[in-house]
Design goal:
Number of strands: 6
Structural class: alpha+beta
Largest sheet: 6 strands, mixed
CATH architecture of the largest domain: 2-Layer Sandwich
Radius of gyration: 27 Å
Number of helices: 10
């Protein structure tokens, strides 16, 4: 909870700016601004403060409750996370950033107070934990590299001929460090698939024990799966052996 008495003293006695108050109290500038704005609108309290009033008493007068008690701050408009999840599941390239932008525009149109982006994301995470069962996987250093194609394609335009070539984006990530490698591909055929995987491994500077594929067609074909990964292995001069069982659905094993 903010030190409301100190903030009011610095504002009305010392005449400090919002930035100076935030720096001296260690509070956020937006938090100081919101409190002072709410205090000015409060008819039940004014400065100088009544003798003996506490920060909790100020909060009760200004907000009608003590922050941190009784759940979230009701002065903010709570997002419709059910709709957010539906949009992200049904619409290609829909992100939390886009959903937050729409939420802020709606709040401004209805003259309501929106959450900042970080709070919006944190509350979405809590909402998902409370409403949906999820599996948590603990990442291990150097164990896996996850690979997939990005959902959106791009157009490469030849300046001389005007020819348009669709580009698919290959993405590789190391789950523990969150390092990402991305590369555009003109084709998703076997040899190009091997090449981009090799490029990712070169960029990361090492070879993980497992390469996890999210149902990539080229890596799951029963007839070419072993040959594809063997060629990938040969290209990296790896000493690991391949799983003799072959490529499993959703998982290409190297080791």
């Amino acid at each position: 909870m903010l030190d409301y008495k100190d903030i009011l003293t610095k504002r009305y006695v010392l005449r400090l700016s919002l930035r100076e108050i935030a720096e001296q109290t260690g509070a956020g500038k937006s938090g100081v601004h919101d409190f002072l704005k709410a205090f000015e609108k409060c008819d039940a309290l004014e400065f100088p403060l009544p003798p003996g009033i506490t920060n909790a008493g100020i909060a009760m007068k200004v907000y009608g409750k003590v922050p941190g008690e009784g759940g979230r701050d009701e002065s903010y408009e709570y997002p419709d996370y059910q709709q957010v999840l539906k949009l992200m599941n049904e619409r290609k390239n829909m992100t939390l950033q886009v959903c937050w932008d729409r939420y802020v525009k709606r709040c401004k149109a209805e003259e309501k107070k929106p959450y900042q982006y970080r709070q919006f994301c944190e509350l979405f995470g809590k909402w998902c934990e409370e409403n949906y069962e999820t599996a948590h996987f603990t990442a291990v250093i150097a164990q896996t590299m996850e690979v997939d194609f990005a959902g959106k394609t791009f157009d490469l335009i030849n300046r001389l001929t005007g020819e348009i070539t669709p580009i698919v984006v290959f993405v590789a990530i190391l789950p523990y460090s969150q390092y990402i490698y991305a590369e555009g591909m003109e084709s998703t055929k076997e040899m190009q698939w091997i090449e981009v995987n090799n490029n990712a491994l070169k960029a990361f500077g090492g070879v993980p024990a497992i390469v996890v594929c999210d149902n990539c067609k080229e890596s799951l074909r029963r007839r070419s799966g072993n040959r594809c990964m063997r060629q990938l292995q040969a290209g990296r001069d790896c000493e690991q052996g391949l799983d003799p069982a072959g490529v499993e659905p959703g998982l290409c094993r190297m080791g």
